[in-house]
Amino acid sequence: MHPDVVVVAGDLTTAGYEDEYIEAAGIVAQIEPPKVIIPGNHDARNVGWVHFERYFGNRFSRLRRGFDPVRAERLRATGFTVVGVDSSEPDLDEGRVGRDRYQWIRNQFEERATSRSSPSTTTSSPCPAPGGSATSSWTPATSWPSSPTSTST
């Protein structure tokens, strides 16, 4: 299987402890890139967000990939964008994406796009959380109508 992107959408840990992050990092490292890793509410417990950034990078991310010309013609899109947004609240079971993040999210899609096509979906492979169960979810992706290039930020 050769997915365009793998989205690992938390919970990577049970309680956000560093030893859980070390174990999760070893598991996630086995997934071939490109991948987008988003923390879940368990990952923000016990200052877990600090460990997340140490082992996986920014909790807010964007991945862009371009299609080769044949695929771009077939799909009528030159590529896709996946935006990862951390909705966790430290030490709480619920999360939210507040209004203060709306413009940032919008900018991630509009930066290179002059218009958008219909969203498609990207599914993630299950990733067992240490001491927990497997997580599988999806995130919307959008294509953009510019030249087919492959960039990641």
Provide a descriptive summary of the structure in words.
- This protein has helices at 18-28, 48-56, 69-75, 99-110, and strands at residues 6-9, 35-38, 61-66, 79-84, 120-123, 127-128, 134-135, 138-142.
- It is of the alpha+beta class and 153 residues long.
- α1 packs parallel to α2.
- It is flat and about 50 Å long.
- Residues 113-153 have low confidence and may be disordered.
Total count of domains: 1
Which percent band covers the strand fraction?
15-25%
Low-pLDDT parts are 113-153
List the strand order in the largest sheet: 3-4-8-5
Strand segment count = 8
Computed structural class:
alpha+beta
Count of separate DSSP helical elements: 4
Shape: flat
Task: Report the C-alpha radius of gyration, rounded.
Answer: 16 Å
Which sheet architecture does the biggest sheet show? 4 strands, antiparallel
First CA to last CA: what distance? 24 Å
Mean pLDDT: 75
Descriptors:
153 residues, alpha+beta, four-stranded antiparallel beta sheet, 4 helices, 8 strands, 25% helix, disordered C terminus
Task: Provide a compact summary of the structure.
The protein is of the alpha+beta class. Helix content is 25%, strand content 22%. It has one domain (6-142).
SSE layout:
Elements: E1 6-9, H1 18-28, E2 35-38, H2 48-56, E3 61-66, H3 69-75, E4 79-84, H4 99-110, E5 120-123, E6 127-128, E7 134-135, E8 138-142
Helix pairs in contact: 1-2
